[in-house]
Amino acid sequence: MLKSTGIPNEKDLESVIPPKERLAKGPVAIIECFEKIPCNPCYTHCARGAIKEFEDINDRPQLNYDICNGCSICVSHCPGLAIFIVDETYSDTEALVKIPYELLPLPVEGSFVTGMDRGGKPICRAKVVKVQNPKFQDKTPIISLAVPKELSMVVRFLSLEDYYSDSTIICRCEEVTLGEVRELIRKGYKTVEEIKRISRCGMGPCQGRTCQQLIMEEIAKATGERIEDIKVHNYRPPILPIKLGRINGGEKNE
Amino acid sequence: MIKTDIVVIGGGPAGICAAINAASSGAKVLLLDRDSQLGGQLIKQTHMFFGSQKQHASVRGIDIPGILVKEMEEYKDNIQIMLDATVLGIYEDGVLTIEKNDDYIKIKPKGIIVATGASEKFPAFPNNDLPGIYGAGAVQTLMNVYGVSPGKSVFMVGAGNIGLIVSYQLVQAGVEVKGVICRGPRYGGYAVHASKLKRIGVPIMPGHRVIHAHGKDKLERITLIKLDENKKEISGTEFDIETDVLCISTGLTPLGELLWQMGCEMKFIREFSGHVPVRNEELETTVPGVFVAGDVAGIEEASSAMVEGRLAGLCCAKKLGFTNPEYSSLKEDYLQQLHDLRSGPVGDGIRKGLAKIVV
DSSP label at B51? Predict the structure, then answer.
């Protein structure tokens, strides 16, 4: 699959993602290099000896998770830009993902960008925590993004376009913005039902088909709950808006 | 007529390394290049190189000529560089003729190292001569040497390392890349290059071919068709894509005209994408004193071209009586480096090709 799509599959990724216990200890490199090619700078640049010595230059890198401290030296020296640093201890709800980024302009520290997945799809809003671009990195800046913890192994790139900015519309029927939803969550409305009742999100012609999951994601991000555990709003008839005249007087034969 | 020990034809990674090693062995070397600067294709390669530290891995291609030229300065008494010099021919008496800034110059060397590189292959389809259809090398020259954007949107034909890397460089230059196609069901370049493109949002579309280009005065649109697993066209799957640039990156073929002229035995080797000279392990062709290095000996990466250059320079000098004091250990090291670079799965084709051509 990787050799037709360019995207590693779950099995590929399993082999390079450290165990949970290690991720809980702090930053560590995720080396997404799945093909035997003649290349070894990751190993030769690792000052701690965390990447096992290559017997053959075509070897795939093998990382000792206990020796690696996530220093990120290898990130800017990998010609394939295939190494990322993940720090799941960044905060209670967020992980820090360090990404090699060779496009201009560079993101600005403190700004919000969009975290993209391995297929280039927007996944979440992400805060740019740091932009490292010292001379030794030779024009491969490293961008540190704060992303929701559950997306630490999903976000692998960024777009400067803030897809998830406050002005983005979440409920098209009732024209409710992401910023309004966030503000409600901040005020303590933490269920879809509550947000629906106070903002009319989901009460328009589509009855929540567009906005419900987006609101659930937003609640999950704010509260740290898993999206699986968030309750949907109540489903009551009618499923689509109809003219009151249709039901006025009941069924024809009634 | 200029007389010298060794002429190196081509100042790319292979040629520069050949000149360094021939000169460090004690031979007088004349290094020729038709461009106005040394480096060959390296001067367009803004990405980090693969390989090991010995071949400058993780250094950007554009920075490698500077490193090599600095190394060459150590032997400046033995190396003369002639730029803007195109070799026109090599004759039976071993004389080379050169055109340099409208001058016609003759050179008589004792040994020759040919490091002329490769040229691009071009696919045949109707209207493939429309302005806006470029080779990948031209796109890189415009973009990375002269800072000129080749167009607003580009469609890339060919998903080997060059196609994938140039697509990435186009995105870096702010050009929209609408897609990358290749005929087979799997792209040919390294997976890391493909992954890099995917997460940047460029579609990779194996199993497609361009069958038609359209446009009045310049390219406006292309027609693609889907191919099955055996690269056969599936009729009825044609579709159009609007683009103002079509970039062709369908492979390279060794540039061996001068070797033919000298009477070197040449063979068509599929794995090397064209005719390459029969040679021994030391890179000497069937014409004594004529050595080869780099893509002209078979299409490979710049890493192996540099090592081949060093080997050819060392061995050509030895042949003329200039034996490097460390000849044996150096030669062994170069052969080992080449062996290592070619030993993995991506070296399968190269090893197969070498088995047919090295005597």
Answer: B
For residue A58, give the nearest of B351, B289, B270 by alpha carbon.
B351
Provide the number of CB pairs (under 8 Å) joining chain A to chain B. 136
Reduced to 3 states, what is the DSSP secondary structure of residue A35?
coil
Could you tell me if A118 lies within 8 Å of chain B, comparing CB atoms? yes
> Tokens in use for B98?
């050169």
Where in chain A are the domains?
Answer: 2-159, 164-254
Nearest CA in chain A to B57: A41
Residue ranges of A 77-106 with Cβ closer than 8 A to chain B: 77-82, 102-104
For the entire predicted model, the pTM comes to 0.87
Q: Angle B13-24/B302-319 helices, nearest 10 degrees?
A: 30
Helix (H) or strand (E) holding A84: strand A83-87
What backbone phi and psi angles, to 5 degrees, belong to B7?
Answer: -105, 130
Comparing alpha-carbon positions, the chain A residue that sits nearest to B49 is: A79
CA distance B215 to A100: 39
CATH assignment of A164-254, among 1.10.10.1100, 3.40.50.2000, 1.10.10.10, 1.20.58.220: 1.10.10.1100
pLDDT digit string (tens) for chain A, length 254 residues: 899 999 999 999 999 999 999 999 999 999 999 999 999 999 999 999 999 999 999 999 999 999 999 999 999 999 999 999 999 999 999 999 999 999 999 999 999 999 999 999 999 889 999 999 999 999 999 999 999 999 999 999 999 988 888 888 999 999 999 989 998 998 999 999 999 999 999 888 888 888 999 999 889 888 888 889 999 988 888 888 888 888 787 777 76
Residue closest to A124 by CA, chosen among A91, A164, A85, A92: A164
> Tokens 């000849």 — which residue?
B327
Contacts of B131 (CB under 8 A, 6+ apart): B217, B218, B219
Q: Do A139 and B187 touch (CB under 8 A)?
A: no
Q: Name the residue type at position A19.
A: P
